[in-house]
Amino acid sequence: MDYYIKFQRLFQIEKGKWLILVGLVALIHLFCQSLMLPDGRAVLSQLPDQKNNVLVKGSESSKHSSVKVLVVDNPLKVGESNLDNESLLVRGVKTTKVYNVDGQDDGSGLVEKEKQEKMNGDGMDDDFDFVEDETLGNVNVDMEEGFRMQNDSSLSLAQLAKRSSGLVVSKAETSKILLDKSVTSGSAASSTLVVSSAKPLLIKSVVEKKTQSEVSTSDGSGRGASFIRINGTSDGEGHLLLRNNFASSSNSSSMSNKPVKKKMRCEMPPKTVTPINEIQQLLVRHRARSRAMRPKWSSERDQEILRAKLKIENSPILENDKDLYAPLFRNVSMFKRSYELMERVLKVYVYKEGNKPIFHQPTLKGLYASEGWFMKLMEGNKHFVVKDPRKAHLFYMPFSTRMLEYTLYVRNSHNRTNLRQYLKDYSEKIAAKYSFWNRTGGADHFLVACHDWAPYETRHHMEHCIKALCNADVTMGFKIGRDVSLPETYVRSARNPLRDLGGKPASQRHILAFYAGNMHGYLRPILLKYWRDREPDMKILGPMPPGVASKMNYIYHMKSSKYCICPKGYEVNSPRVVEAIFYECVPVIISDNFVPPFFEVLNWDAFSVIIAEKDIPNLRSILVSIPEEKYMDMQLGVRKVQQHFLWHAKPVKYDLFHMTLHSIWYNRVFQIKLR
């Protein structure tokens, strides 16, 4: 009996210990989950999903909220319905999420779906902006800093509202918001809002920071209230309604879901426009007031450049030069004197650092051939290049942005930060190895790059360098008076870059205007909208079919037209400008904010027509209004300027190689600063 009592007491003690141990494990489990789940809702996570309506009301605690939910008048009319009961207007700045609006409630709930990488320096490139006004299919919602979604967990709409503005969540009848977590490879979790097609959504402005209390509680009538509500229906579907001091309307309309394509910056008009006359004023202003960094210590090379500058400014008046056509230049006397001094004085050191194929491996064919031809001819030049960097006035960094993209860019990633980091590491390497970069902050260093991404890839770490860029956009960091607008040349034959040169004389050009090409960017579709098949003397076409015959037909039209239309594509630059000159056709440049090649020395009014994008509807009337005598002068100017836009296997005087190097030299001469 004593043994039985002792055994029973021992069993009770051991049972108590086990209960304590199980309780501790449960508490640790809940504590760990509270660290991972939003708002520490570990207990709720253990409960089954609730299929309920959700009503999000403003409580007393929300009166001092920094977030206000707004509804404004619908700027775009959709069907016959009003914004009051059909539209959600969203606008944002920083964190970007994409919500997919599905036509049916399939029970998948609210699934966050990642559509973008990080932007501007920390992840995602800055070529992507988003359309603010679109009928929702896939909706780009940009949340402000005070209204961010977290990537580590999924939030319901009600939870999001509560987090952002202190709103209280109450449960209602039959429809539902479900949470589901979806993680894609290499990216954060994301979520998708599933909403009935019975109530369409419209995007513009959702969140506005406020410092005073502007979110009040609802009295149930909907008046004087600001709340988000999912109304239940008999079939279990839900409607999303955003209200602010408006009564809800009883009428509804259905609309089929149309997917909204995310638009990049290059697919939308620029936010600011700098006319060509203002670009000219900027050039004069920057010439008079240099912004270049002062050298940390002076050198004999600086003194040689200053003496050259003085001689250029006091150059003798040039008359009837056999090699130069005076109307083509802003000041032919200064250009002539500067060119002579470049040939006599300039010395360039080419860095040997850098591995192929990004460095020292030029591409001589295709759209980006300009950077390749310059690299080939510069590295092989014996007149300008010196082996001793102490004798150099300028320092060349021989990399190819085309090969950089080809080698390092992950296709369809929309992330170019690794490309920029690669060039940053290179600049830091030469700065650590040589003293020349640190002396001027890179102001006497230059690069030649024709890829569209070059402005982004060379930003910040090469900010003080002289950049010869095909993408010469004044709104994207191009510095007038320091940087050089590089001609984008489409070279069809690396062995013979001058193949098919020339065109018909002016008297035999019977086509008023010609354009054919792909529909890149936002501008070219506008051009075709107004002028395709409208006038018999205007050959405004879309993409040419593939094949040799098509290419020859394209060249024939260029050689037979008075004016060749050169609209921008994805970026401001276009190879058609040089193509037009190549085939002796007067280029008509339609590209706001574009700085034409060699703008610091050439007078583009003498051999081209520059038209603002907004004037495309008046294109024909502008061209027809040009007097025949003026056209003949411009066509002569095209033939005379042609020599400055040609590549040669062995460089010749005033050709494209020398013109590029001269503009780099010329800008350095007028930008240099001494103590």
UniProtKB/TrEMBL annotation:
Q: Which residues fall in a compositionally biased region of kind Low complexity? A: 245-257
Per the similarity annotation, which family is this?
A: Belongs to the glycosyltransferase 47 family.
Primary site of residence: Golgi
The taxonomic lineage of its organism, from the top, reads: Eukaryota, Viridiplantae, Streptophyta, Embryophyta, Tracheophyta
| UniProt KW Glycosyltransferase keyword | yes
Q: Which UniProt keywords apply?
A: Glycosyltransferase, Golgi apparatus, Membrane, Signal-anchor, Transferase, Transmembrane, Transmembrane helix
Write out the GO MF terms.
Answer: glycosyltransferase activity
Q: What is this protein called?
A: Glycosyltransferase
One Pfam short name: Exostosin_GT47
Q: Where are the transmembrane segments?
A: 18-37
Residues in domain Exostosin GT47?
A: 343-625
> What is the native source organism of this protein?
Sesamum calycinum
Q: Where in the cell is it found?
A: Golgi apparatus membrane
Q: Which GO terms describe its cellular component?
A: Golgi membrane
Where is the region Disordered?
209-229, 245-264
